[in-house]
Amino acid sequence: MRILIVEDNENLVKLIKSGLESECFAVDYVLDGEAGLRRIELHHSDYDLIILDLMLPKKTGMEVCREVREKKITTPILILTAKDSDEDVANGLNAGADDYLAKPFSFEVLLARIHAILRRPETVLPAELRTQDITLNPSSRKVIRGNNEIKLTLKEFSLLEYLMRHPNQVMNREQIISSLWDFAFDSFSNVVDVHVTNLRKKLNDRDGRLIETVHGLGYRINA
Length: 223
Prior knowledge:
- By secondary structure, the chain is α/β, with parallel strands linked by helices.
- It has helices spanning 10-21, 33-43, 61-70, 86-94, 107-118, 154-164, 173-180, 191-202; strands at residues 2-6, 26-30, 49-52, 77-81, 99-102, 129-131, 134-137, 142-145, 148-150, 171-172, 211-214, 218-221.
- The strands form 3 sheets. A 5-stranded parallel beta sheet has the order 2-1-3-4-5, sandwiched between helices. It has a 4-stranded antiparallel beta sheet with strand order 6-7-8-9, covered by helices on one side. A 3-stranded antiparallel beta sheet has the order 10-12-11.
- The chain is elongated.
């Protein structure tokens, strides 16, 4: 899953980004309100969540939040700010934010808030994913095939989870990259193919019957 952070404190952003990437999220960031609004307007469909500061240069986070909702963009917004009065919280939620977390905060609480927001899709996501004889648990990050646990890297796990959430669908490389890597990633890289190859080896799928290559299009996991 991919998150956009709009925050002018670059040191804080880098700490949050590092922590979230260790939790299998892809993270982009911008450092002012105008850049944040432009990124959201153009690329909101690429993001599962926006983390938004209120005290931003060029355009406040409250203005960004209101304008985003006025444009009928429904991407969840978590406000992360030092402004913590009851009035500030009420104003943020009334402007269209989905949640509000005051600074200073612990990363564990931020992560819990993020997971809580992402548990609110239009359809409830299953606690475990199953494809053929493979079971994937997003919470424990365990993958079982048959009776054996398969040890995967963070990116391999994220790629397998993404494919298993879209069974029998052809997912092209651009879709996979936009969901699992940050905005600055080189979309012409062959990194997706490399991870698919590694996944196949670990899943004993060398013939590609489980994770199928659809030539000229992308990859499909066969349920």
